């Protein structure tokens, strides 16, 4: 394998717990363990290694604010190839500094990715640089396909691959490998419901595209033409996953597998969660495509998952504004062995009478049944209780 000596041969491991939860035999490919924490460096390296000496000396350029930039910058520095990355002006400073830390030159241009992409093409022409597309390039596609080569070597009983789709580079490479096996393997693409660009193209649909998705790594508005042709020809099926299922999958991977993935990296598991009958009884390979997630976003996802499972809750309790009111409520929490995390009184901005107040209690319970017992006890004591629900 051309790129083998310079990438991490990440493990493919059976998850007994996720298998029991989903009804499928689930193998995980830990691409979040690459040096740049994402599979993207496979394709980037494969492209760089095929440049001639003149192209290497002039350098390469790409438009990216994410994993493609990191992979190209890292391997460009290793090989002594100058790398320029064009990013939108809105790119978080940490991503700019990480890319520069790998030795790349960063140009900030435009407000959106499309603006940065257009500027990268202009700079490439002006300076004679080789433009490295993040997905719509045969060398990139072939590099990403090495993910499937390793998976199937380690777990030859896999009969189904569930692969995230953004621009389509990863699934195109993996599907070519899967269909070359002695026993063809089913390939299922997974897209976020908010960004069904490839789904629309392949199925002739017109679903809306856009929104604030957790799976930003596959939030691509315009899929590739090379990848679209491959997907139309050899990918068997495509499914869309909701934001809630992406959040749940990400949380499960951290809690069960003790591994951090970004939203796109959880897409395959989200597909199994949302379509259990579709994958029941299958032996499924999932690619944990990357682990580059903002820590604050990760914390929010985990806390939201605790809230949905009933282990964290916020209850709005109507009280009369009199001495001892809070004490009597707290006593019920104590009797039910529920931990109070935070209290918030509201006397002014409320539609209650002047002598009434609203009390928001954030609390921690063992599970949903424990929470239900607390609400029942409060109600039995004469309190009006309203759970504050998540979206």
From TrEMBL:
Gene Ontology MF annotations: L-serine ammonia-lyase activity; nucleotide binding; threonine deaminase activity
Record-linked Pfam families: PALP
Enzyme Commission numbers on file: 4.3.1.17, 4.3.1.19
Cofactor: pyridoxal 5'-phosphate
Keywords noted in UniProt: Lyase, Nucleotide-binding, Pyridoxal phosphate
Catalysis performed (reactions): L-serine = pyruvate + NH4(+); L-threonine = 2-oxobutanoate + NH4(+)
A Gene Ontology biological process term: L-threonine catabolic process to propionate
Pathway the protein takes part in: Amino-acid degradation; L-threonine degradation via propanoate pathway; propanoate from L-threonine: step 1/4
ACT domain segment(s): 314-391
Cited CDD domains: ACT_ThrD-II-like, Thr-dehyd
Enzyme's top EC category: lyase
Classification via PANTHER family: L-THREONINE DEHYDRATASE CATABOLIC TDCB, THREONINE DEHYDRATASE, MITOCHONDRIAL-RELATED
Oligomer and partners: In the native structure, TdcB is in a dimeric form, whereas in the TdcB-AMP complex, it exists in a tetrameric form (dimer of dimers).
Family: Belongs to the serine/threonine dehydratase family.
Record function comment: TdcB also dehydrates serine to yield pyruvate via analogous enamine/imine intermediates.
Name under which the protein is recorded: L-threonine dehydratase catabolic TdcB
Species annotation: Edaphosphingomonas laterariae
């Amino acid at each position: 394998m051309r790129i083998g000596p310079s990438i991490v041969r990440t493990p493919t491991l059976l998850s007994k717990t996720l298998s029991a939860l989903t009804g499928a035999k689930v193998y995980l490919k830990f691409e979040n363990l690459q040096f740049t924490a994402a599979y993207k460096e496979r394709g980037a390296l494969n492209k760089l290694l095929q440049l001639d000496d003149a192209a290497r000396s002039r350098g390469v350029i790409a438009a990216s604010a994410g994993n493609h930039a990191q992979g190209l910058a890292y391997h460009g520095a290793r090989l002594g190839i100058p790398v320029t990355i064009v990013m939108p002006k809105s790119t978080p400073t940490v991503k700019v500094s990480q890319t520069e830390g790998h030795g790349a030159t960063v140009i900030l241009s435009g407000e959106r990715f499309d603006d940065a992409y257009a500027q990268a093409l202009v700079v490439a022409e002006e300076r004679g640089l080789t433009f490295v597309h993040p997905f719509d390039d045969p060398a990139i596609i072939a590099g990403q396909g090495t993910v499937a080569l390793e998976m199937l070597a380690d777990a030859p009983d896999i009969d189904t691959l569930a692969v995230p789709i953004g621009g389509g580079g990863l699934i195109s490479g993996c599907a070519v490998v899967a269909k070359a096996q002695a026993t063809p393997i089913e390939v299922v693409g997974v897209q976020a419901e908010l960004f069904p660009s490839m789904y629309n193209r392949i199925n002739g649909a017109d679903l809306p595209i856009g929104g604030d998705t957790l799976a930003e790594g596959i939030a691509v508005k315009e899929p590739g033409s090379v990848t679209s042709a491959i997907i139309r020809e050899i990918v068997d099926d495509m499914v869309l996953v909701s934001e809630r299922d992406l959040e749940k999958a990400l949380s499960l991977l951290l809690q069960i597998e003790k591994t951090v993935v970004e939203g796109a990296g959880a897409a395959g598991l989200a597909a199994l969660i949302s379509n259990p009958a579709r994958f029941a009884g299958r032996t499924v390979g999932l690619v944990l495509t990357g682990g580059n997630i903002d820590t604050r976003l990760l914390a929010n996802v985990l806390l939201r998952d605790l809230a949905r499972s009933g282990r964290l809750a916020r209850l709005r309790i109507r009280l009369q504004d009199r001495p001892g009111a809070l004490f009597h409520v707290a006593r019920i929490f104590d009797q039910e062995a529920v931990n109070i995390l935070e209290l918030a009184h509201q006397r002014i901005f409320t539609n209650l009478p002047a002598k009434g107040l609203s009390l928001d209690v954030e609390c921690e319970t063992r599970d949903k049944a424990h929470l239900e017992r607390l609400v029942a006890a409060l109600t039995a004591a004469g309190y009006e209780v309203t759970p504050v629900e998540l979206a």
